[in-house]
């Protein structure tokens, strides 16, 4: 009889932090669990849930195979109510019960808040020191538990009786404050004591009042900081004592003299706030109905990176290298500094000419300063700022050593869910760089970069990276919250801001921009595909529909979107440094392709939600747009008006061609364009996420592999060869000579171009979802010729899935693990027919053809990596004007179909006779045969 292990303790909605889940946002939280192991043939047919509450124990039995986001079976929670939940599952016989998991309701009714927002009077102004708000609460009786509910207009650091309430930083985070303000709940039972208790909150400017955007604007949301806090203490006799913010609180200036997310923090450690002059507070209005509970994890310190090296720069400055581009701040340990001594820390991502490379920061000062108190041993770090940096410049600390310095890495505390490994160390470092850039830019919401005067929630960046993000980390709660802000900031006409929360809008709807506004449709669909959460589609559906209606109106009856501003294929490497939108691909082509794609997604979402009329309407719109796309931008044989890799890639992956013949020809042309670039990347933000898929889907995976593993500039691996430890904004953010790209906009920590990692997981390693939430998985590795092994692991909603392959004795060994509750379709690298497997461990060994065959055409020669590399080396030694791979490849493009015998004619330099060129190429051919002795007759006969 099939059996299963006991399931994991259930988790609630998308809250995955350990321990009790406090302040859940919904009264009926959905439940998810995994079944770690089960015998062959087992499948869940029934589950049973027990919910233990104050009134007793309820048990619910449900006949269902579902185990991801299943409905709450009991009566809804009330505000503050706590419940313990456990689950067991059965095929024929029930498993053991899971461990208990605890959930506690948030404050579901505005009336649950007893206090009001308070703001200091006389102090705490825009250019004043950060205010400290204080109050006391007298507790009489035996304490059972204590909860602190808090939020602020600004950011806060809180203590009770001098002890930090948590390690959370920059609370309450960043939402669209005019529509939504997040609050958090803290278990402070261990901090509250019988008798008098002091509550203290220091308020920083944060995103609410600090500088935001590249126009130097401050206090965009308001110029007065304010606090809302409520401490609730439950006593043994059942009484609940409540102490909230009101006019009994007092305020005093703290030692944080200035704080800003871009510019840094100035702290005077000599100041003892409680010895200062106290001022009253007064109430300010904020609509309590706009308060929302957290959906995802908090921002907190997640890593500590010790300094690697301290040295003197050419200019005599003390520099520090932490070895990794991170986001956070520097913690310094000092000894023996006199009172009034000043310590300053400047931050930068790179060095240029031996000094901090600060030009990419633009106007952001990224500087923390401390005025020392005279304490013998002191550890200093900021609290109300963050910086993107690998290097720091420190002044004011004599005899500084690496042991004195630690980089404190902060970020949303996302659960890691995806890994990748291969036999290529550069490729592994690329993947690790993607992970680090995601860590550094998922600070409460997905931002573009962490260092300059920007750090905004650009919708285009999030849209292209969402699939990769959803694989590497559990982003469901964070992205769900961000999408709520997107819908809140969306204009009545359906247009979507370029950044969310929108702090750069000019008070009128923006011109709709493809790829950026399409985050409103594609990101919710990505969450649904990767997590199985249909609820996100239902919640976001009005926003999704409004966007598609908006851009359909922009395209008009012709269904060609060729009007208005567009970012286009932003940062196409062919674009000049000062004009990143001047790409090879027609912006109208990009926009029309995205209209078709968003209409496709909306029709699929309508089908999932059962909106049949909408499904038909938007499927018809998608088809009409596809047909218009073909008429306007394609020729009958599959060529594109914009003869660019991005144009072909979008049309292939989103199935915009009229027939398979066009698509196949487009794939051939795309592959030739990649060859003609010398296997350098030629795509920007829009084309980069799809180009490798387009090549793979049309039978040119080997070309995608060459593109992925290229190390010349521009390429994914070029930054790795330059020492990058995160993903760059531009393909050449740093030039080969070590100087910074001359463009005004350059970042060394920008995740968008790392979107290729999603294809690496799905194709190079071979693990992909084919049904929402990975209920069905595709195992289909496509091993690159230059790799000996690759593997990936993903924590799916059903549990851990793994795929790995390794070359062994001329064959390929594929191993896989399918989690319980899922099934997999397997396509092995030998091209055998697909077959299905259920949960458990699996292993297959297959024969795979190695690279070979006759070098018949010049295309064959280019595709044969060993021969091609030697040809390039030998040509580089010849004075015929072909001193780089792209130059050779571009010269050969018109001859790809020609016999190899015409290589000399193809390479003939201007002014040279064919005989002269043939003689030189014949000499090269003789050297080529040395690396291919089995093909000497072919090479000598055709290249001569």
Poorly predicted tracts of residues: none
According to CATH, the homologous superfamily of the domain at 110-293 is Galactose-binding domain-like
The major pleated sheet works out as: 10 strands, mixed
Q: Give the amount of beta strand, in percent.
A: 25-35%
* CATH T-level fold name of the domain at 110-293: Jelly Rolls
Mean pLDDT: 94
Q: Can you give the helix content as a percent range?
A: 25-40%
- Work out the number of β strands: 40
Number of helices: 20
Radius of gyration: 30 Å
General shape: globular
> What's the end-to-end separation, in Å?
72 Å
The CATH first-level class of the domain at 110-293 comes to Mainly Beta
Q: Any overview of this molecule?
A:
Among the domains are: 11-105, Immunoglobulins (Immunoglobulin-like), CATH 2.60.40.10; 110-293, Galactose-binding domain-like (Jelly Rolls); 299-411, Galactose-binding domain-like (Jelly Rolls, Sandwich); 767-847, Maltose phosphorylase, domain 3; 858-943. With 944 residues, the chain is an alpha+beta fold. The strands form 8 sheets. Strands 18, 19, 22, 23, 24, 25, 28, 29, 30 and 31 form a 10-stranded mixed β-sheet that branches. Strands 8-20-17-9-14-11-12 form a 7-stranded antiparallel β-sheet. The protein has a 5-stranded mixed β-sheet with strand order 2-7-6-4-5, with no helix packed on it. It is globular and about 100 Å long. The chain contains 20 helices and 40 strands. Helix 3 runs parallel beside helix 14.
């Amino acid at each position: 009889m099939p059996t299963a292990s006991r399931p994991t303790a259930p988790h609630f909605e998308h809250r995955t932090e350990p321990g009790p889940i406090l302040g859940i946002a919904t009264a009926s939280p959905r439940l998810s669990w995994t079944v770690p192991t089960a015998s062959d043939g087992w499948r869940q047919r029934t589950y049973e849930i027990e919910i233990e509450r104050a009134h007793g124990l309820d048990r619910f039995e449900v006949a269902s195979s579902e185990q991801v986001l299943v409905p709450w079976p009991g009566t809804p929670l009330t505000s503050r109510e706590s419940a313990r939940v456990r689950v067991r599952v059965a095929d024929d016989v029930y498993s053991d019960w899971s461990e208990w998991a605890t959930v506690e309701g948030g404050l579901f009714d505005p009336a649950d808040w007893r206090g009001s927002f308070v703001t200091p009077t006389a102090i705490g102004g825009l250019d004043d020191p950060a205010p400290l708000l204080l109050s006391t609460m007298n507790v009489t009786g035996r304490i059972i538990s204590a909860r602190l509910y808090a939020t602020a207009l600004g950011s806060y650091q809180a203590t009770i009786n001098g002890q930090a309430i948590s390690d959370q930083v920059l609370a309450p985070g960043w939402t669209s404050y005019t529509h939504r303000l997040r609050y958090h709940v803290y278990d402070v039972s261990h901090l509250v004591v019988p008798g008098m208790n002091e509550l203290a909150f220091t308020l920083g400017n944060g995103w609410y009042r600090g500088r935001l955007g590249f126009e130097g604007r401050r206090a965009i949301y308001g110029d007065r900081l304010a606090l809302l806090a409520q401490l609730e203490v439950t006593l043994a006799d059942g009484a609940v004592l409540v102490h909230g913010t009101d006019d009994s609180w007092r305020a005093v200036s703290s030692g944080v003299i200035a704080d800003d997310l871009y510019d840094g923090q100035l702290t005077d450690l000599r100041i003892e706030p409680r010895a200062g002059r106290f001022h009253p507070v007064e109430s300010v209005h904020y609509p309590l109905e706009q308060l929302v509970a957290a959906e995802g994890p908090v921002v907190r310190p997640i890593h500590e990176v010790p300094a690697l090296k301290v040295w003197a720069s050419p200019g005599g400055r003390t520099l520090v290298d932490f070895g990794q581009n991170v986001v956070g701040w520097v913690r310094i340990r000092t000894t023996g500094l006199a009172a009034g001594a000043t310590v300053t820390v400047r931050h930068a991502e790179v060095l240029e000419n031996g000094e901090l490379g600060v030009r990419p920061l633009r106007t952001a000062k990224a500087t923390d300063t401390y005025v020392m108190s005279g304490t013998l041993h002191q550890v200093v770090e900021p609290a109300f700022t963050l910086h993107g940096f690998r290097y720091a410049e420190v002044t004011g600390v004599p005899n500084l050593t690496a042991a004195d310095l630690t980089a404190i890495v902060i970020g949303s505390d996302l659960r890691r869910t995806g890994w990748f490994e291969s036999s290529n160390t550069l490729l592994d470092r690329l993947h690790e760089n993607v992970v680090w850039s995601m860590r550094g830019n998922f600070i409460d919401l997905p931002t573009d970069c962490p260092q300059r005067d920007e750090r905004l929630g650009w919708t285009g960046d999030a849209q292209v990276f969402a699939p990769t993000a959803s694989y590497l980390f559990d982003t469901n709660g964070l992205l769900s919250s961000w999408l709520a802000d997107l819908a809140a900031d969306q204009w009545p006409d359906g247009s979507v801001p370029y950044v969310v929360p929108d702090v750069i809008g000019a008070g009128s709807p923006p011109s709709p921009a493809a790829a950026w506004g399409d985050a409103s449709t594609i990101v919710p669909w990505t969450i649904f595909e990767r997590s199985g959460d249909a609820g996100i589609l239902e919640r976001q559906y009005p926003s999704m529909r409004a966007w598609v209606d908006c851009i359909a109106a922009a395209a008009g009856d012709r269904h060609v979107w060729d009007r208005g501003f567009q970012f286009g294929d932003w940062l196409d490497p062919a674009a000049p440094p000062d004009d990143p939108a001047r790409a090879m691909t027609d912006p109208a082509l990009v926009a029309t392709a995205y209209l078709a794609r968003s209409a496709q997604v909306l029709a699929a979402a309508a089908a999932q939600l059962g909106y049949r009329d909408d499904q038909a309407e938007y499927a018809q719109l998608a088809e009409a747009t596809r047909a218009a796309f073909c008429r306007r931008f394609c020729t009958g044989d599959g060529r594109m008006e914009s003869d660019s890799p991005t144009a072909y890639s979008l049309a292939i992956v989103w199935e915009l061609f009229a027939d398979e013949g066009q698509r196949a020809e487009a794939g051939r042309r795309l592959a030739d364009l990649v060859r003609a670039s010398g296997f350098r990347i030629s795509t920007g933000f829009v084309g980069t996420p799809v180009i490798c898929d387009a090549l793979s889907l049309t039978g040119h995976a080997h070309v995608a592999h060459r593109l992925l593993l290229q190390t010349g500039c521009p390429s994914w691996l070029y930054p790795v060869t330059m020492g990058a430890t995160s993903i760059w904004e531009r393909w050449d953010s740093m030039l080969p000579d070590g100087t910074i790209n001359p463009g005004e906009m350059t970042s060394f920590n920008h995740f968008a171009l790392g979107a290729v990692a999603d294809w690496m997981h799905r194709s190079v390693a071979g693990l992909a979802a084919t049904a929402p939430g990975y209920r069905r998985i595709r195992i289909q590795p496509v091993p690159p010729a230059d790799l000996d092994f690759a593997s990936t692991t993903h924590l799916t909603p059903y549990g851990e899935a793994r795929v790995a392959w390794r070359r062994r004795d001329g064959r390929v060994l594929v191993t896989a693990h399918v989690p319980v509750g899922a099934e997999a379709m397997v396509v092995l690298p030998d091209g055998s027919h697909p077959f299905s497997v259920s949960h458990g461990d699996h292993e297959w060994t297959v024969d795979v053809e190695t690279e070979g065959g006759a070098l018949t055409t010049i295309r064959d020669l280019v595709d044969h990596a060993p021969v091609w590399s030697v040809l390039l080396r030998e040509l580089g030694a010849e004075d015929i004007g072909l001193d780089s791979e792209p130059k050779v490849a571009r010269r050969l493009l018109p001859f790809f179909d020609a016999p190899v015998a015409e290589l000399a004619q193809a390479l003939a330099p201007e002014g040279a006779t064919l005989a002269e060129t043939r003689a030189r190429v014949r000499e090269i051919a003789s050297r080529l045969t040395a690396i291919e002795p089995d093909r000497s007759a072919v090479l000598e006969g055709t290249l001569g």
